[in-house]
Design goal:
heterodimer; A: 281 residues; mainly alpha; MetI-like fold; B: 309 residues; 2 domains; 78% helix; flat
Amino acid sequence: MNNFWHKLRHDSLAMLSLSIIVGVILLGIFAPWISPNDPLQPHLSEKFASWGSDFPLGSDHLGRCLLSRLLYGIRTTLFLALMTMAITVTLGTILGLIAGYFRKVEESMMRICDVMLSFPSELMILAVVGMLGAGIKHVIIASVIAKVAWYTRMVYSFVLVHRQKNYLLFSQVAGVSSWTILRKHLFPFILDDIAMLATLDTGWVILSISALSFLGLGVQAPTPEWGMMLSEAKNVLSIYPMQMIPSGFAILIVVAAFNFLGDSIRDALDPKHCLIPKSVV
Amino acid sequence: MLLYTLKRLALIVPLLWGISLVTFTLINLSPSDPAEVSLRINEITPTPEAIAQMREELGLDKPLVQRYTFWLSNLIHGDFGTSYVTKEPVAQEILYALPTTLALASLSLVLIVVFGLSLGIVCAIYENTFIDKAIRGFVFFFTAMPNFWMGLLLIWFFAFHLGLFPTSGLENPSGIILPAITLALSYVSTYIRLMRNTMIESKQELYVLYARARGLKERVITKHIVKNALHPFIVALGMSIPKLLAGTVIVENIFALPGVGRICVNAIFSRDFPMIQTYILFMALMFMIFNLMVDVITRVSDPRLRRQI
């Protein structure tokens, strides 16, 4: 573990990505204090204003400050993506541990996973959103459903490697409760692999939430969200092409940071310990 | 070989049955009542009597199992239901829009294969040189790029700025080029990376060392390496065709192409359940067909796999 932090700390790209992510999260938390204007307040006389002291990044089709909307958009896009990821990972870890450790449910749970995985995640999200209707709540539910089977499968395969090991068998014979074995022996082993997978997938979740909002299926107006800001910019593409730059760039930077960080974590993890081959992710 | 194909074809039936079950359950888990939705779409005030009448008309008053068997037997007879909005058979509308989506997906597949293969091979041959690093930089950039932004940038540059392509729609066949590039760009990076990594791994193998010891030309050795690296490439390609088809949803909406993805999003907005259901069934069917095709192709291309049926 020490080795892992050492490697990661000396990876300048990883540290840069990490500081971008932390910085963006802080900007999102402190958005009410640092944003220059109210993100929802239209100034109809100042539509499509260009850069200036009033609107540092200009204003949109209703004269709302783009920078403020971008900052508040962190709260929707990034925080919702992180929340989705947290729910998915927690559920997946619990289900995977159960499936791997309790042999009675192993077979049935894995078959359910097979069925869910045979649907590609993109289609699964469309199907669930289609049935539940548009709305960000439904997009989050859909993303969780689309990914949870995969995490269950991953955690399950980690557990499989460990469950025949002597230390585990010994604990079982010594009468340690299943809960303690799961919590103290198995969980710490899978933690860093899960962290890596989750980091790599966060970028994917950000893209999928903003893509659905771009289509109008996710976050509803007037809440500021990066994907939706792009879809508003799309309507004035020919006259004000600069409108699509800030939000698009924001998505690109954050997703790239998560991808870089995930890649670096994978490289920093001890290759023998890391159970996932490169081609999988 | 024939036996294997037949076996896989036979497996499609239970899988399709499973998918029909999943979509049917999903639609019945939906919080809104289809009868009420159908009334609202046609701008009829949903009074209790009207809802009751609509429920009867749509067959919603019958028990769940009976409804499922009825729906399934209709499916087998080629009747996928009628749209709540247009009152037309949904299968007809989807079949009408399908060629656009298929054209878009296949053109971007061609782009992915051409650029994924060639750039991947170039990267592996010139490993760790400037070319390799430049291409990999682009690759990383494009994996993080949201494809809806990419689409907008392409429209702005090529359609508005240079005026080379139409901005949207399909009146002109060249209207499909920009959408296909947008779709391909978000997937091609995976293939460049895959091809590069498999080729670099194969370089270490003994057959390469042997070939070099025999004094074969580098060009010939590269040909051997490429052939061996093709297999994972084809497998991964097969796995991503479903993603490509589902990815058309976003691209079709940006470029206003009259494909099934647009139909699907419109159906989600208007809560047109039969349409959504049929879209998912159609897509699932396509995934299975493509997966089958890829599995058969990999077996044809790699004799080692043929023995294990």
